Amino acid sequence: MAHETITRLAAQRRALPALAAALAVAPRIVAAQAADPLPSWRDTPRRRALLDFVAAVTTEGGPDYVPPAARIAVFDNDGTLWVEQPVYTQLTFMLDRIRAMAPQNPGWAADPLFRAAIAGDVRTLAAGGAEGLLKLAGAAQPGNTPEEFRRIAAEWQATARDPRWGQPYTRLVYQPMLELLAYLRAKGFDTFIVSGGGVEFVRAFSQDVYGIPMHQVVGSTFALTPGEADGRITLTREPRVDFIDDGPGKPVGIARHIGQRPVAAFGNSDGDWHMLRYTTEGPGRRLGMIVRHDDAEREYAYDRESHVGRLSRALDEAPQRRWQVVSMRGDWARIFP
Amino acid sequence: MAHETITRLAAQRRALPALAAALAVAPRIVAAQAADPLPSWRDTPRRRALLDFVAAVTTEGGPDYVPPAARIAVFDNDGTLWVEQPVYTQLTFMLDRIRAMAPQNPGWAADPLFRAAIAGDVRTLAAGGAEGLLKLAGAAQPGNTPEEFRRIAAEWQATARDPRWGQPYTRLVYQPMLELLAYLRAKGFDTFIVSGGGVEFVRAFSQDVYGIPMHQVVGSTFALTPGEADGRITLTREPRVDFIDDGPGKPVGIARHIGQRPVAAFGNSDGDWHMLRYTTEGPGRRLGMIVRHDDAEREYAYDRESHVGRLSRALDEAPQRRWQVVSMRGDWARIFP
Questions:
Q1: Which of A274, A312, B131, B155 is the most buried (most CB within 10 A)?
Q2: Nearest CA to CA, how far is A214 from chain B (Å)?
Q3: Shortest Cα–Cα distance, B160 to chain A (Å)
Q4: What is the pTM of this model?
Q5: Residue A85 Cα distances to A161, A163, A306, B106, angstroms
Q6: SS3 category, A23
Q7: CA–CA separation, A216 vs B244, rounded Å?
Q8: ipTM of the predicted structure?
Q9: pLDDT for A141-150, tens place per residue?
Q10: Which of A269, A285, A249, A280 is nearest to A325 (CA)?
């Protein structure tokens, strides 16, 4: 019925300019009449800061106006968009891979590092530092192409379950942040993930879960070696990290990949301190926001002493840098979808 | 008037679902009635190959359907989207910078490399190889941030003139390719530049000239060093190339930055051979297309023996790999906007 109406309208050549104008104007009206875009955010100063910021940078002719091409918003992933306790999900994935591959690798039993991995002994692994973890990561992805790795990661993400909630990890994402991502995109922002995690692990679910396309995910990378096999070009993931997109690496990753300084940044730990600074030190109106985990009942409560997602310096400096600190307990009406 | 009509419609709550349906349907009808999307492409097999490919991958339910999230099209820049003769524009820019900075660097006069640069002696520079060019590139951008470099590049692009046409270099872009970029985007593709040139030089004009946002430009990169000055985070471009996005580097750049294999690739030289292969070796319907410079009158004619944009192997293999070879002379009704 609507289809027929429009077809008839379009057939009348004089109606076309009016139709085109209507198409340009109507979505804004529909959006304005739509329900609250942030229903899981309680009416607190954090919610108002978000709405005020978006209104300021999208008001044409206003002093803080930012054209759509410069509306770049960056989001940390672990602890900002989804749960990172008791350990980063990507580490759980890696240990599951190691366990699955152990029967084909009997030599691993003689190596304390691999024994700890197979036993899920995260404390011993953490004591071994980054070097040990990278050795494991390399062993867990032998000679894969990025496409193969992503397929393996996606299969795991579809089947693995978090022990506390019994849910797929990809459901342990924060509903208020999903609403925020959608709201910013509706307001002309490009939303990016800037994660310390491996870029391909995040790309395996970013589109389906966050609505963020693969090319808008920035992350740590393993070296890729080009080659040829069976008359086809190959790319092989090496067990060697060639870029760490964490801490001071986040502004580097942003500059290389996105190419311009964001106007809004969202993080939850000191690993995001550089990214928050890089974003909010730019000229004009900016927004920096920290998700603080203070809800042991509905999620987790941790900050300065945590083994993952440590939040100390960024929290101390938030007032002077005018970063908003979100209380999950106080500011969010619900946590998960 | 249209505004008022829609406001009235929107005020009637019962009209909203019909309006939403109209908004979803109407743009397709308008597009179908619009003029030819490729007016500068003559009606030849190349134009038909483009239209057939797009129709095939966008037909829902068809055997070659590609969902929008996977509609990735990649374009080389020099010689594919704009003129690369008599030398790459970025080299001209670099030599202009060296000349402008020479009075402040009297020591350069004693260095044969810099003397050749100041004299615009491209043959001597070419004989010095990549090492010499990189030394010059480093000298031409001392300690800049990416933002400073892009501002300098944009100023140059706005003022410098090509000697043959007396035009800004950013006007020496190929009108048929501008139409193709817009057409693909209208059909749900994401368009990317994958250039051997420095990424920030291309980002300085990609949005204005090609409608391609900065984050959809992949290119060669100089090392970026994070630091701090005057209480602010800094990023410094080092005179050290850390990624060469050319030849075998193009599939690597695509995998890292875009994260998935394109379905369509456009190039003009053997530097694009790997990218064309990587794209067209993927499963399902693919399109590889080579722009051949065979129009000395309206642009340039060159291929196997050229000092820039050498086209030999990719041309020889085009038939067996089913790559389309565009004749600028025969297939394009006009060259420049």
A1: A274
A2: 6
A3: 24
A4: 0.88
A5: 14, 11, 10, 60
A6: helix
A7: 21
A8: 0.87
A9: 766 888 899 9
A10: A269
